[in-house]
Design goal:
Blueprint lengths: L3 H8 L3 H21 L4 H12 L6 E5 L5 H9 L3 E6 L2 H9 L6 E3 L12 E6 L11 H7 L2 E12 H4 L2 H13 L2 E12 L4 E10 L2
Helix pairs in contact: 1-2, 2-5, 3-4
The structure holds S-adenosylmethionine.
S-adenosylmethionine binds next to helix 4.
């Protein structure tokens, strides 16, 4: 089983190293993740469809990468999906798939004026040490409609990082989000890594 970049990304200890790794990883990302049975995107999409039956809602896939998460949303039947990512190379692959209506090249750690009104935000594999920081949860609040959902995964590496995980919990606690659910399950099956998927709802 190959886990060339997966191994490197989990060992990466800085945001800039991770950013460089994704630029190089882009052409082989889908193959490596598919081979290792990465299931978090499908779990996020299934959870969203459990909470929202209307498949025409407007969704923003943050840290969309090459589009595996958008692909999972589309497979479940969602039709209106935008994507956002830091890495131009990952976005180039996503664009070729024609899943997303709009793609944005932005850094979640540098919030800008992003004036949108989404029904749901999905963040699969992006809120993590050396990736997008926990404040991403707060910045998501302002671009969601009333009662909108923010669904994000936190993998075992991040769950076991006590500083990072306590920051996630504090951010949720002090936000205006209501925590609807937290579901632990498979993340990358071949590596026996799991993730918790959080479901937050905008309260007003
Ligand atoms: C593990 S991949 C997940 C991609 C996709 N969601 C999936 O499930 O396959 C993490 C993605 O988050 C992006 N990313 C990491 N930090 C980010 C940040 N601060 N702002 C925006 N995107 C970021 C990376 O470029 C990469 O494409």
């Amino acid at each position: 089983m190959s886990y060339n970049f997966l191994d490197k990304i989990y060992k990466s200890n800085s945001y800039s190293t991770s950013k460089e790794l994704y630029q190089k990883w882009a052409p082989s990302y889908d193959d490596e993740l598919t081979e290792n049975k990465y299931v978090t995107p499908l779990r996020c999409a299934q959870i969203l469809s459990y909470y929202i039956k209307n498949k025409n809602i407007k969704i923003l896939d943050i840290g969309c990468g090459t589009g595996l998460s958008g692909f999972a949303l589309k497979k479940i039947g969602f039709k209106s999906i935008d994507g956002l990512d830091l890495s131009e190379e990952m976005l180039k692959i996503a664009e070729q798939k024609k899943i997303y209506q709009s793609l944005f090249n932005l850094d979640l750690n540098n919030p800008t004026d992003f004036n949108h009104n989404y029904d749901a935000i999905i963040a699969a594999g992006v809120i993590s040490p050396t990736h997008a920081n926990p404040d991403t949860i707060l910045s998501s609040y302002s671009i969601l409609k009333e009662k909108g959902l923010m669904i994000f995964s936190i993998n075992d590496h991040a769950l076991n990082d006590s500083l990072f995980f306590s920051s996630i919990n504090k951010t949720i606690q002090y936000s205006n989000f209501i925590l609807l659910d937290q579901i632990y399950g498979d993340h990358i099956k071949e590596l026996n890594i799991k993730s918790s998927i959080f479901v937050l709802q905008k309260s007003n």
